[in-house]
Amino acid sequence: MTNTDLKALELLFQRPLEPVFTTRDQGKTVLELPDSFYTDRYRNDADDVSNRFSQNVELKIPIQELARKPNLDFAKKLSLKNQFSLFNSNHQDIAGKLIQLFLDAPNLKQFVSLAAFTKDRLNPVLFQYAYAVAIAHREDTREVPITNISQVFPGNFVEPSALKDARQEASVIADTGNRVHVDIPRNYTASDREDEQRLAYFREDIGVNSHHWHWHLVYPASGPVAVVNKDRRGELFYYMHHQILARYNTERFCNNLKRVQPLSNLRGEIPEGYFPKILSSVNNRTYPSRISNQLLRDVDRPDASIEIAEVERWRDRVLASIDQGFVENSSGQRIPLDEVTGIDILGNLIEASSTLSINSQYYGNLHNQGHTIISFAHDPDFRHLEEFGVMGDVTTAMRDPVFYRWHTFVDNIFNKFKTLLDPYNASQLGFDGVSVDYVEAKLGASNAQANTLLTYWQKSSADLAAGLDFGPSADGNIFASFTHLQNAPFTYTFNVTNNGPKRTGTCRIFICPKVDERNQPLRLEEQRLLAIEMDKFTCELLPGENTIRRESSDSSVAIPFERSFRPIGAAYQPKGADELARFRFCGCGWPQHLLLPKGKPQGMLFDLFVMISDYSQDAVQQPTNTPNDACSTAYSFCGLKDKLYPDKRTMGFPFDRRLPNASLAELTGAFSNMAKTDLKIVFSDRIVDKA
Ligand code: CUO
């Protein structure tokens, strides 16, 4: 990146808790601030401080004076040491204003100045969030890569003793190349006395949590309309979280646990306790824990107040609206919940997006306030001066078993709406003259057996340096090793006969578990709610026989490990324009290493389901002049940047609605454009070191 302004923006992701004048970019670069930028703490020593940090640097980037200093009073309610929560309406509001302020900066230089000026005056997590949203949405910052959140605030993702080791390693061993990898322990949050611990590898996976953070970053619920009002965002809120639950429930079957029970009763005890043992960067305390069998109570604190009865009232109103088939806006107008837009309306209203909800006064703030009540269960009236637990933070919420219980409650509301719609009919499901004759999924090895896939543990490492503040010198890489589930890459092959002219189809691949945790067969209605989207892509069908091949690594759901944990320093950045474009906003996507559920050592059976639908009914006309987006591989959950969602069917099609047949076999028997085969996932309990 030759433009020093863009470089400065990139550097502001580094060392989030250090003052903005300290060296960045491995000690090579410093931002030269106007005197008026120094906070009161350093103002009298501004010369000293700036001289001290500008010795021996290779590059000084001058920061322009601000034309007008912003009034930051709107953010006062959130102190620099408070925890910041996207589920908290006050915090959402503050973030919305800050994003608007960033977007309003008239040019790149003034945006850089504004960011440098505000950074040390605002809560650092708030700053990093709003800053990342602004970078993602400003026209002039398209080339700035957004640092992965696990690197900005590593404490939210890993066991804190690993960070201590990392700091020590960095202070003792000057040469980055000689530093050992710091090991993040496995299974550190509970013992196997706790059944839920069997899923810890999924809940506490760094890639899973960073995906979830990234999704909420791409689809904020409040803020400037231009940022919030993205194509089908409410529907995508439903679908992305629905898919997380399908995966989680299937993962539970693999570990002999039953499906998640929805948290429908906010008056009962929550049997699942959770002790996160991770550190919040802003106050250097571990996130509060929740004991087993905790009762939820009304929250009445300076930073949040919500009564359980209010949430129940919102829930009842939403459910009643679904039964009636319409919602009412604030002027009492009835808006039908139809089969195309109904789910999008409900998604924004239930989440709730204060900017997009059709009537936030009446339908309230159901999903977010659920997060809030649960996250303060340990100290609802602030008598112990404790902050929220992991459920209050999008970077950490998925670690807690109760996340899945709350989201199952939310998902059941969406599913209820979908279940009331008519089942799909033959004209919606079929594709005349197209027949899928054969499907298989196979590992790469030449002697591999078709339809037997493999999972195992893998030990990988990622660079956590960006977020390590006050290291000995502003340098270097800190590699942390951790163990995660992995799957061996595989290839799908389908044989398709096209008894018509050349045409285009959309190939949709799902896997559905066949049996539950007790080995009892699942009905189609259960399978459809557990269907896991694996991939979706368009395919050209020539007249006659076609063979379609697709690699698991090309999945429209997932992003590669390397993209989740890429190093982002100048030395790593690609030169070519296309390559550089890839470097942009591309961190959203399900982690490829969790593409397949774990399976079982003896093998676990799934239905591999393939459907080719008629592209002429699926295609979406993108508005002209949208910039070419180089990272569109994970669009199923994340959409395309600055574009319409590229599939006209409702998300999850054909499993989002009831189906006209009694079983999956009957369905694929009735429609030639669908096929299924038995697929076995075998888990091998060994740890493979990443080469
Ligand atoms: Cu993603 Cu509840 O929406 O965490």
TrEMBL record:
The keyword Oxidoreductase applies. It is found in: Secreted. Its cofactor is Cu(2+). GO terms for cellular component: extracellular region. Its main location: secreted. GO terms for biological process: defense response to fungus; defense response to Gram-positive bacterium; hemolymph coagulation; melanization defense response; scab formation. Pfam families: Hemocyanin_C (PF03723), Hemocyanin_M (PF00372), Hemocyanin_N (PF03722). Residues 400-411 form the Tyrosinase copper-binding domain. InterPro entries: Di-copper_centre_dom_sf (IPR008922), Hemocyanin/hexamerin (IPR013788), Hemocyanin/hexamerin_mid_dom (IPR000896), Hemocyanin_C (IPR005203), Hemocyanin_C_sf (IPR037020), Hemocyanin_N (IPR005204), Hemocyanin_N_sf (IPR036697), Ig_E-set (IPR014756). Keywords: Copper, Disulfide bond, Metal-binding, Monooxygenase, Oxidoreductase, Secreted. One of its GO terms (molecular function) is tyrosinase activity. Belongs to the tyrosinase family. This is Tyrosinase copper-binding domain-containing protein. The lineage of its organism: Eukaryota, Metazoa, Ecdysozoa, Arthropoda, Hexapoda. The gene is Dwil\GK22067.
